[in-house]
Amino acid sequence: MYVIKKPGWAMPERSATPEHLVVNRRHAMGLAAGGVALAALPKPAAASDFLAELYPAPRNERFVLDRPLTDESVATSYNNFYEFGSHKQIARAAQRLQLEPWEVVIDGLVEREIRLDAADLIRRFDLEERLYRLRCVEAWAMAVPWTGFPLKDLVAFAKPLGGAKYLRMETFLDPSMAPGQRQFWYPWPYVEGLTMAEATNELSFIATGMYGRPIPRQNGAPLRLAVPWKYGFKSIKSIRRFTFTAERPLSFWEELQGSEYGFWANVNPEVPHPRWSQAEERMIGTDEMIPTQLFNGYGEFVAHLYEGMADERLFM
Ligand SMILES: Nc1nc2c(c(=O)[nH]1)N[C@H]1C(S)=C(S)[C@@H](COP(=O)(O)O)O[C@H]1N2
Ligand SMILES: [Mo]
User: What is the pLDDT of residue 46?
Assistant: First the structure.
């Protein structure tokens, strides 16, 4: 594990989450001694029932936090999801996102193209919970318990060919559900990409749930990437298509404003955004200011991926 400095404001994440979530989550459906079972907590507004029977899943204890979890009500009501508007209060509008049917396409440089429903895809993998930080390029941050599966499991399922160098991911395209997609000056659909080494890194995760429940629409149901060492815009929501390619994909923000949002987008407090400093981050919910860390504190897992790449714009 990497060494974490515990500042005065830090508290162990265990005190921020019901203890039964740490213990035996699949069987913690009744009332746990000394606390209220998760299933008994009131469901927040704008929650989802998609594959509800799969949650909660057991926690993977390898991923620890240095700060309290963000309140569920905050993490599910302060969002970036430009398909539903270019502001943070899109949770209500995002309820129009229709999750059934949701066909996922896996194509490009693969043994054979795969098309299957998101529910069938998710059921193929062992779900686990991970506590991750998320650092938006706009200098706000949160700490959330995702549920999902490692992206490398999906890569193995896809059987990419030797020539595959990148994984390109694409969000749905349906302006009738998503009013933001009628804003023609954006290059819809939202696209993101990773190198194969990044996609198969242990940290790369596909989130299907959050706070021990199905992931809400506003946070990227039914499938959303979580790559916590990169700025939040890399964590593409509501993925419909995974394409293995030989060419580096052009991502949504890079196409829109390549001088400010690049392909790599690794977090680095010492490389300012052209219009603001990246030295600190504001935790949503508490507004605490916290020093930002190189690779958002995940260097132990990912720093080696970027050795010998000094010519690339790794931190923008
Ligand atoms: N499809 C899609 N994915 C997206 C975005 C978006 O607008 N559309 N915004 C990104 C940005 S900028 C951030 S910071 C995170 C926000 O995730 P959250 O709303 O779950 O906090 O989602 C990322 N994924
Ligand atoms: Mo972001």
Answer: 85
Find the mean pLDDT for residues 171-177.
97
CATH topology of domain 13-306: Sulfite Oxidase; Chain A, domain 2 (3.90.420)
- The rounded percent of the chain whose pLDDT value lies above 90 is 85
Distances (CA, A) of 184 to 70, 88, 187: 34, 20, 7
| Ligand 1 atom closest to Cα of residue 218 | 19
Whether 168 lines ligand 1, by a CB cut-off of 6 Å, is no
Task: Give the mutation target among 74, 80, 191, 257 for probing the ligand 1 site: most ligand atoms within 8 A of CB.
Answer: 80
H helix or E strand, kind and range, residue 114:
strand 114-117
> So where are the chain's domains?
13-306
Express each pLDDT in 123-142 by its tens digit: 999 999 999 999 999 999 99
